[in-house]
Amino acid sequence: MSSLDLAVAALDAPSRQRVRPVLVWLLERGAAESTPLLASYLSDVLPTAYGGDDREQHEVAWALGDLYDAAGLPEQAALCRSAAAHETLAVWHWIHSFSDVPTVFWLPALKALQRGDAPPARAALSLSSTRALLEAVGEGLVLTPTGELPRETVLALDDRFRWTEEFPWIRPGGEGDIPPLSFLHRHVVAQRLLERDGDRLVLTRLGEACLHDTGRLWRTMVDPAPRWSRGFERDALGVLAASVLRSADFALGRLGEELAHVLSGKWRPAHQGSLFDGVSLVAQSWYQTGVPLGWWDTGRGPADRRPNAFGRAAAVAVFRAVAGPAQSTEPRLT
Question: In the listed set 198, 220, 242, which residue is the last one of a domain according to the structure?
Fold first, then answer.
């Protein structure tokens, strides 16, 4: 009797029931110990099995992990228990929540997701404006009566990042006159890197920590939470990310129409207005966040924006956060 047969016999009855169909599938295609075949099953077959019951899909993967561990096959056990495997199941469960959308719509985002989520090369370049704002606040900065950054800080940051040169219609003045800086200020506060303390703007503990950790700063700036934490917002951002990863440009009108179409099978407009209106607000605020972070390259003119390596990496991070939050590799689902 093989080590796998012995391991199957040692499992509890529910686990045996879960692993046997998988072993049959593997044996029909080669060998039950094959890591590539097992990886194929976990990524391609399991996400569509069990009637889309994601809880049961995760349980099958955990049972397989127990099986291979007991059989003395640690590589296969680690694969079944990996965050990547369970993230893939979560991604497909989210995708299946849009029942009328063909799978081909999601494929570019899925392929990008498989390449990993490390900060992009030269991430510090994208984050230079964020870091400069955090450093300018330092131990505290007195805001104007309207809650804006003081004029001298605004002019110093604009002189460094040349927003008024990139957007010729902007004239330097207060923060309200330089939208990219306002976008950045709003997002950094929403992500809890900065906070109001009376009439002062101060660094939070998270902000202080991120100043010394480029990877953590990147992940905080591209994370949908806490700024976009409601279900509709997160779904809109996930679909937006998939759309960005399918296209070479970023046309807000076209994207808004595509997002509204995809989301219409799952969401209805609240109160008055249309689904397109709600989608447009989310898409525009995410687009605006990327302006001071250099996520967009200019195409045929200042209004023609195309996602560069930073923008695409941000879209991958959003898709991962919304569609497939990694499952814990410690306790099993019960």
Answer: 220
Single-letter amino acid code for the residue at 208 = E
- Position 216 in a domain: yes
Whether the CB-CB separation of 199 and 295 falls below 8 Å is answered with no
Distances (CA, A) of 111 to 182, 201, 261: 34, 41, 23
Tokens encoding 321: 């956060």
Closest CA to 114 of 78, 84, 86, 93: 84
54 belongs to a structural domain = yes
Q: pTM for the full model?
A: 0.86
The answer to whether residues 255 and 240 touch, using CB atoms and an 8 Å cutoff, is yes
Mind listing the pLDDT tens digit for each residue in 39-77? 999 988 999 888 878 899 999 999 999 999 999 999 999
Dig out the tokens for 107 from the structure: 């494929």
Average pLDDT, the chain: 89
Q: Is residue 264 part of a domain?
A: no
96 within a domain of the structure (yes/no): no
Rounded CA separation 167/164 (Å): 5
What CATH number does the domain containing 199 carry? 1.10.10
> For residue 283, which of 322, 247, 235, 325 has the smallest C-alpha distance?
235
If phi over 0 gives left and psi between -120 and 50 gives alpha, with beta otherwise, what is residue 12? beta
**Number of domains composing the chain:** 2
The whole-angstrom separation of Cα 268 and Cα 149 is: 38
Cα separation values, 306 from 122, 178, 224, 251, 252, Å:
18, 21, 21, 8, 11
Dist. CA 5–CA 192, nearest whole Å? 53
Domain that holds residue 44: 3-81
Q: How many CA atoms lie within 13 A of 52 on its CB side?
A: 9
